[in-house]
What does this fold into?
Amino acid sequence: MMFKSRIISNSRPFGGEVKEEHKNFNKLHEALRDHLTRKRFLLVLDDVWSESPEDWEGLVKPFYTCSPGSKIIVTAPKDILLKELGYNSLYKHLEFLSDDDALSLFALHALGVRNFDSHLSLKPHGEGIVKKCDGLPLALIALGTSLKTKKDEDSWKGVLESEIWKLPVEDKIIPALRLSYHDLSAPLKRLFAYCSLFPKDFLFDKEDLVLLWMAEGFLQQVTPNGSTEEQQSGHDFFDELLSRSFFQRAPNNESLFVMHDLMNDLATSVATEFYFRLDNESGKNIKKMKLDKYRHMSFVREEYVAYEKLKVLENAKCLRTFLATFVGEVEPWRKKFYLSNQILTDLLPKLPSLRVLSLSGFEISELPESIGTLRHLRYLNLSQTPITHLPEKVCNLVNLQTLILFGCDELTELPNNFLNLKNLQHLDVRDTLISFQMLLEISKLKSLQITLSKIDIESERGIEIAKLKDFKNIYGKISVVGLEKVQNATYAHEANFSQKKLSELELVWSDELHDSRNEMLEKAVLNELKPCDDKLIQLQIRSYGGKNFPNWVGDPSFLHLKHVSISGCKRCTSLPPLGQLPSLKKLDIEGLYGVEAVGSELFGTGQAFPSLEILSFYDMRGWEKWSGAVFPRLQQLGIYGCPDLVEVTLEAMPSLNDLELYKCDSGVLRRLVEVASAVTKLDIFHILGLNDEVWGGVIESLGGVEELRIRRCNEIRYLVKSDADPSKILVKLRRLRRRIIVEATS
It folds into this structure.
């Protein structure tokens, strides 16, 4: 069942979202078969653990109708599956790192350099340690990092001669990883062991894990001076585990984290008998287990969790953690999970020691009043549930520190006595219907940090924004809508945005740009809305009515700002110096009709855009000239609906590999392919003036193109036409794998 659900949750069959009809495994089979019939494909299945021939046969069934030449590549820790299927001659053992590469990787993480030239006394010990790691990168990195602060021979000799190397290898735990765990401080060992509650491939959020550690009391033992210090200590501990490779960043989402399977095995191995992860395997023996010893329990959400499955937990009187987890992505399609109401009404009241309760993602419309009997509860997560209200008895949870209501999109209000929760420190009300006025009222709680998503300015003078001063601790992402109503920049100043720890900020004015809009006032308001530069990762400015931007937009002090989007600012005549943002990776500019030239004002002084990877311009109707310096790391460039842009004088785009041009002049295309020699994908649509002569010059420059898509370019009659030997031109396109030419009348 887990194998099937993982296949479904990770399927994006035709480059889009998972469709409703594809959530069923059989229907997904049919869709894949229909799509792949008489086609060749390459399928890569990475890190396959299932050893069931039935799973394999079920997976490959849709591929029997494909064309000859199709391939499936599988990476797996064991070869037993391929042997059972009769593919003995088709598998290849991947070699580990060579001795030289392994030593170089280890030195890099232990010494910060790739060799031992400056640490010759450590080299013999390093070579011995590397040999024991058997060329496994994770082991080399983890052990190397653990020795980063130890430059004495005794420490390195101690690792090399440790008795741990001699222990029998059990439960797939590599000795090098045991050694790296052994080097952790006692608090770090406990925090890492707690992560044994997470199933393999579970994606987790840094802040949420820190809040869990706090709720369990783990951080209070090392930072007894208060919640703020606890939280900071939690962040420091998390970063330490991350730097030592116990955690890794999720491959497709930089904001989330994951444990390598081997690290997950290690956490399970070192976790004491107090931890229990309920899964399909352990669930078979749960009735035989002595549950009274367990303190922490997690289980994976399923389509329906019956009372009978968890009933035995009634005997776990000392249970502190009841944590629902999920493997895979729920969004962008929402899968429904159901929990027996009996678990809420009958089981939970029998667990009086609970400190952590997560019911996230279940179809729960209400909580029973008995929730108020869980007096020790510190952490309550009801996110992504259709709950309509919270029972008044929730206000009896006087020890509650964290309440997560994110995505409860039917929740309109909080209980009357909510202010009784004196110890509440973290409240997440993103994507709820709770009113701004109600949130203002509960902001009186002294230590409360609120994470919310949207503030609508409704009054004619926009004075509500000034009331944000009462939110001493706003965190996360916030969208402020209706800024055109703010009639005095002082109101924006009083909001005190510079002191709010926001990671994402969206500032929105009305898209109706009538004469009553005061451009000087709007610039003054925007100037006063400067956020704290310490945390901001994403900034969006929409429909701002000024002609230019205040100095803080593009200020290099925003060290962590990665994504900027400016759209609908129709009166703007120049862009801010966004090139000075050191971490900016993605920039979107749309609908700035008044901008005629893009150049030095965007780049600023010195090296510009050192980190920019994705750049897009949309609907820039008045844009005529583009000049500037090198984009050293730009990989994707899109220009859409900019028909007046004719003059492009850029120096170089050495890393550009993906170029899209829609409704632009042919001169732009010609100039861009000249300065971007590494383009591998070109997608053009309705390029003005693109005839055979111009196209001939373009095709000459496309030596590395692998994918070519041409639409609505009706003046082109030939892909390649030249007086020279056509084979000499075609050899320049030797990497071209796909040509898509769609003819259509303009």
Residues 1-23, 728-732, 737-746 have pLDDT under 50 and may be disordered. The first strand starts at residue 42 and ends at 45. The two ends are 51 Å apart (CA to CA).
